[in-house]
Amino acid sequence: MNYFLRRILQLIGTLFVVSLITFAAFYIIPGDPARVILGPEATEAQVEALREELGLNRSMLQTFSDWLTGTLRGDLGESLIFRQPVTDLVAQKIPVTLTIAAMSIFMTIIAAFPLGIAAARKPGKFADQLISVIGHFFLAFPPIVLALVITLLLGLTFKLFIAGEYVSYTDSISGFIASLFFPSIAVAIPKIAVFQKFIRTSIIAERSKDYVRTAKSHGLSNMMVMIRHILPNSLVPIITVLSIVASEILGGVLVVEMVFNIPGISRLLIFGIENRDYPLTAGIVLYLAVMTVIVYFVADILHSLVDPRIRLK
Amino acid sequence: MSRFKAETEVVKVRRRNRVGTALVALCIIALSLCSCANPFRAKSRAPEGGGTYGGEVVVGITQEPGIFDPHTSVAAGDEEILFNIFEGLVKCLPSGEFAPALATDYVISDDATIYTFTLRTGVVFHNGEPMTAEDVVYSISRAAGLETGVPLRDDLSGILSVEATSANSIRIVLESPDAELLPFLAVAIIPRSVADINETPIGTGPFKFQEYRVCESVILVRNNNYWQSGLPYLDRVTFKITPDMNTAFLQLRSGSIDIFPYLDSEKASRIESDYQILSGESNMIHLLALNNDVAPFDNPKVREAMNRAIDRTELIQILMDGAGTPIYSGLSPAMGAYYNESLNNAFPYDPERAVELLTEAGYPDGFRATLVVPSNYRHHINAATILVDQFSRVGIHLSVLTVDWATWLSSVYAARDFETTVIALTSDFSPRDVLSRYVSDAGNNFINYSNPEFDAVFDQIRGEPDEDERILLYHRLQEILAEDSASVYFEDPRNIVAVSKDLSGYVVYPIYVQDMSTVHYN
To answer: Which A residues, 119 through 178, put their C-beta within 8 Å of a C-beta on chain B?
Structure first.
């Protein structure tokens, strides 16, 4: 209980600092949302009238505390540019980002486990070497480069998909998933490369332990030893790494969305920053921060499920 | 222009272990599932019945529209779409002339202070309500800010009153004579009954607003009650938003975009065989703006030297593959009679003369300065790079500083805190609109240009009822700008549009709009 309470207090502190920094940034960088909305030909009187209407003439602390009070009540305010509630805008776009993230995590898990186990079977032998070489090759690709290579190679040359095409989930769920398939791959590949390597190491370390030899001497097959003993015991460090990988995946999704022209949260975020739409930007940053914290939180809970000792601490 | 280079690596996988084989199989299944379920390939295209009517078209745009209130929207990117939804008393034609639209006829009083319009009868708004004289009065009063005191459209601030004189005529009274208000009366007519026009954009145009998906698209559908019989042809037009030009180009090549305006010539040349490439004058002034208040640009000799130091032909060749017209003053040749042809080649490329002028001005070894460029316009960054190179030949060393659009608007355009900047000026199709920014006290005179003679001539035009006289005065204004070398004007880039070969009827306008009413399938 004490443990959860401490985590939640940490979470609130983190979110407060993140929001404050976001707000401060808008007061430091030049640019005026009223001027962006009205464009180059607006007169001073028009700009001033709009600034007043949007409440841009308040001090930073005033603006921040108003925003904070609203946020505590669950109201993230209205986007200056779109004139829609920030929560509505985010609600439209976040399913897209989360779907890519979930698909990437799923792909990472289903590909990395078989690869890691295969590589760990006979360390230093051909399969291990091959997986290692390919792994290192893809590890060197940041998602943005991979996204471009996939678009050019699979999209334009082999015509497996239409570059930059996106189907909204309101139109067709299967089309939506299909249009997010390649972006998810671009995010997942470098993570598969990292993750399989870690699984391999964990398994090898676990296998050299005494109980494994005991289990084998009891006549259990290699397969059974792997499933019953080695895998469950190597899960604790693997989950720790998975939570780090998952939060990195979130970052990768933001970049890949731009390259594949997917209208997810990152388009909205960049639009918010470019147009100095501070309620929109602060709202999105808050969502992203919450999601990252949740990922770590879930990892903690999984830990305690896999390893009963953690609950005791 | 940026080019992608694909470096493909082929990794041969020997399918030796079972896990590997299973994985490869899984991927193949996933890929094939994916292409089966690919719904966007099956876009229905068949025009129904009459052969050329029906069908849908996707237009690629690069700017997020944001605002749908036609009176407050000012971004060129909004205008592109809104042109299809809203109309005014008059409407711009592809030739740049203004023809009656929601009015059938107009009379301008001899002293140019009263405009009387006869309204078209039988025009119906998208919500089914008929357009009345009250709606017209309401719309123009709203745009001119007659009730609030703050005009939404600054160009209408000279309007004193608007009133309905009968069921189908209205009268606009001006504060002072103005023979050139007509282009600005293309301002949208909207129904009085709609409280929030931004949320429910209802007009009289050929297409009705259906849906705006933030960051995705704007969808318009056919207006079956359009007053121009036979128009439009298409059932549905989707404006698809893709902020990145390169990504938009990929979509064009893969066929998910049918019409893509504002292509650069390098990209256009790569798809010549697959698309119709149309082009027209864009009526855009591309310039290196010089802050006339800041040394050394406060010295006319320095400004003249800079005008002679650049080779416009070479610049347009590199920047646009030659698809642009060199300019030497503040008005585009697209303006027809208003353009002063005697200024063609006013500043021939002459680096020696440039150095002489710099020496006379006290800078025999040249100088250093900063060139600010908005980072969201690739075209401007490319132009700046070429200019930096050309200027360095006469000892003028410009260092490029890229800033984002919001910063550019605040620091450069509004606060005028800059030395030089590359920008393209767009405008309504009106010479007055283009040249008004050079009046000494104009709010948008961001280059701080000031010449009493220019101001006097500009004032004279307002009250001049004779068009031929006005043309001569406009020619004089352009001469004054060139004599003072107000800035380094270099090109009017051509607007290049790629249109699918299945389509006909697309027309390139000299203003920033996409007219979809005449587009149809072959």
So the answer is: 126-127, 130, 134, 137, 148-149, 151-153, 155-157, 159-168, 171-172, 174-175, 177-178
Q: How far is A44 from chain B (nearest CA, A)?
A: 8
CB atoms within 10 A of CB A150: 22
Strands B285-290 and B420-425: antiparallel
Sole residue written with tokens 């470098």:
A190
E strand residue ranges, B144-227: 159-166, 169-174, 207-213, 217-222
Phi/psi for B190 (5° steps) reads -125, 155
Q: Which residues contact A100 (CB under 8 A, 6 or more apart)?
A: A180, A183, A184, A187, A253, A256, A257, A262, A264
Q: What angle do helix axes A2-28 and A278-306 make, rounded to 10 degrees?
A: 160
For residue B248, the chain A residues in CB contact (below 8 A) are 164, 261
The answer to whether residue A57 is domain-embedded is no
Contact of B80 with B68, CB cutoff 8 Å: no
B152/B174 Cα distance (integer angstroms)? 17
Helix (H) or strand (E) holding B402: strand B396-403
Residues 6+ apart with CB under 8 A from A294: none
With the CA atoms of B339, B380, B78 and A37 taken in that order, what torsion angle do they form, in degrees rounded to the nearest 10?
-110
Residues of B (12-31) whose Cβ lies below 8 Å from A: 13-14, 16-17, 19-20, 22-23, 30-31
Indicate if ipTM > 0.85.
no
Alpha carbon distance A119, A122 (integer Å): 7
For chain B, the domain total comes to 1
Is A142 a member of any domain?
yes
The segments of chain B whose pLDDT lies below 70 read 1-51, 74-76
Residue B142 within any structural domain of the chain: no
* Pairing state between β B396-403 and B367-374: parallel
**CATH number of the structural domain spanning residue A204:** 1.10.3720.10
Give the model's pLDDT for residue A310.
64
Return all residues near B36 (Cβ < 8 A) that are at least 6 apart: none
- Domain membership of residue A206 (yes or no) is yes
Q: Structurally, how many domains does chain A consist of?
A: 1
Domain assignment present for A84: no
State both tokens at B435: 């040249």
Can you give the pLDDT at residue B41? 32
* A225 Cβ contact list (under 8 Å, min separation 6): A212, A215, A216
Q: What pLDDT, in 10s, does the model give residues A253-288?
A: 988 888 888 888 988 998 899 889 999 999 999 998
**Residue B418 belongs to domain with CATH number:** 3.10.105.10
Q: Give domain status of residue B469, yes or no.
A: yes
